[in-house]
Amino acid sequence: MSDQAATTRMGPSSPHALVWLSEPVLALVVFVLLALLPIFLPGYVIYILPQYMLFGLMAMSLVLMWGFAGMVSFGQAAFFALGAYTMGLVMKAGGPINPGYIGLLLAALVGGGIAGLVGYFLFSAGVRPTYFVLVTLALSIMMEQIAVSQSQITGGWNGMYIDRLSLTFGRFGAVSLYDDAPMYWFVLPIMAAIYFGLRALVRGRFGKVLAGIRENEDRLISLGFRTPLWKTAAFALSGALACFAGALYGTHASFVAPSLGGVLFSTEVVVWVAIGGRQSLLGGLLAGIGVASLSNFLSAITPQYWQLVLGVLFVVTVLFFRGGIAGVLGRLVERHAGGPRA
Amino acid sequence: MTPLIRTEGLTKRFRGLLANDSIDFAVETGTVRCVIGPNGAGKTTLIAMISGHLAPTAGRIWFEDQNVTDLPVARRARLGIGRKFQTPTVFDNLTAYENLELAALGAGRAAAARSHRIAEVLELVRLSDQAWQTAAALSHGQRQWLEIGMLLANDARLLLLDEPTAGMTAEETHATGELVRELAQRLNLTTIIIEHDINFIRDLQAPVTVLHLGRVLVEGSFEEIARNDQVRDVYLGNA
């Protein structure tokens, strides 16, 4: 009980000025370090990191649902893959306007639309978080199955190749993102902007209402809130973000296959967020990047045991550090900051 | 003077049990009403139907001449019907300030007016010094006050208080009575209180409605009720 209270206080509702201050500062430091990385570490790292940053965006889309609204989703990878397929189809179709732009925009709209629709019907019917988990799990299964079965559109098991997008500025020319460094510079600021945007959002009215839903939905209804609409909005935003990140991922990886949207990958996202801290956007973002990097590293040095290592990490976090890494760090900061603000 | 809240033949049947049997009940604006009765008399059922948490089997509920019988809980809250539950129902892991802030957000105030109102309410419910403590860390009595404060920040005009003094010290109970009277006199708020504490009810000097077996047994001042033989029988178990 006291442990839970302590970890939750780290979360979206912390009254401690230092905790609030330190997260965006830490984020800024990390983003600047990432921005400098290509100078020191050219090559594979610069190729692969943007993909992990996009995983991090997907992780933040789950933090929004899980940490703030209090509902776990096992469907984030479904939206991620949907975004990648959307991007692929739009890029294939071409058109007079830069299809890369259209693909990104459409992915966000499709993801937000589907999540909004599913959410509206579920939440209006008063579905409990437990059943919400099951429905999102079904979304992952459906996404993978549809990607396999509709092979004339999706390429089935073989997957779909997707062109890298190019940035065009009308009369002012164009920038190709075919090389890894420009793509890196393109994805990084998008990630940073989305982090700061989401952070502003959850610190305002939206985040406060979601925290209220997580803490005591009945009380919130009795205060006049139409909570189904707020939950629908949260899921729509979460779906839009995951789908948008997926679209960028698709064009970056130049390839998408059905397993990208499956249950296994969706579960991995839940693991990242549990490890990073489900109530911290930065925790989720960095855990997405970090755990994906760690998986990559471990699978190279110990192909047979790396999943076991991750599994143990997950179990230890869930058992002993319910707020994840962000929760532990937050508590340390709080201890050094002294008591609560008067 | 037209009543702020009025029920008309309000009935609630749970399978075989008639929890509320055709209750006609009205409370005027700016007044306090105590509802008492032995366990199972239907007090909480009545409150829950007025707040919208229970749908009546029959009958109608009027709030300021508007029929609210079929409105959902959230709509009634926005009209100004606020309910404090029997066990304190607050956001445990949020601070007292944040609890009130959410309530004020529900009333749709602009940010500046909101913080002003929250400070005002904190003062009223004596939680100014606890503003940055989580609700879980407050005493039972303070949590009761916090929930009442949330109704105020939410701009409720009708306060439904289900056993507000449960778990309070004598001093806190007394202060709660003063708060309720002050809300009626200074802010013209209307309050319906379910209570068991007989001293609290006497101190309130408010009209009392006695429920028994889902019906209104008698209504009157505290002195009238205390003298009433029927009421005495009901409480002693002879009726």
Give a verbal description of the structure:
- The complex is a heterodimer of chains A (342) and B (239).
- Chain A contains 14 helices and 4 strands.
- The longest helix of chain A is centred in the last third of the chain and has 27 residues, at 227-253.
- A two-stranded antiparallel ribbon of chain A has the order 1-4.
- Helix content of chain A is 76%, strand content 3%.
- In chain A, a hairpin with a 5-residue loop joins strand 2 and strand 3 (174-176).
- With 342 residues, chain A is an all-alpha fold.
- Chain A starts with a helix and ends in a 5-residue tail after the last helix.
- The radius of gyration of chain A is 20 Å and the shape is globular.
- Chain A has one domain.
- In chain A, helix 4 packs parallel to helix 6, helix 9 packs antiparallel against helix 10 (227-253) and helix 11 crosses helix 13 (306-320).
- With 239 residues, chain B is of the alpha/beta class.
- Chain B folds into 2 domains: 1-80 and 157-239, 3-Layer(aba) Sandwich (Rossmann fold); 89-156, no CATH class.
- Helix content of chain B is 39%, strand content 26%.
- Chain B contains 9 helices and 10 strands.
- Chain B has helices at residues 43-51, 73-79, 96-106, 111-124, 140-153, 170-187, 198-204, 222-227, 229-236, and strands at 3-14, 17-28, 32-36, 58-63, 66-67, 81-84, 158-162, 190-194, 208-212, 215-220.
- Chain B has a 6-stranded mixed β-sheet with strand order 6-7-8-3-9-10, sandwiched between helices. A 4-stranded antiparallel β-sheet of chain B has the order 2-1-4-5, with helices on one face.
- In chain B, helix 3 (96-106) packs across helix 4 (111-124), helix 4 packs antiparallel against helix 5 (140-153) and helix 6 runs parallel beside helix 7 (198-204).
- The longest helix of chain B is centred in the C-terminal third of the chain and has 18 residues, at 170-187.
- Chain B is globular, with a radius of gyration of 18 Å.
- The mean pLDDT of chain B is 93.
- The interface between A and B is medium-sized, with 26 and 32 residues.
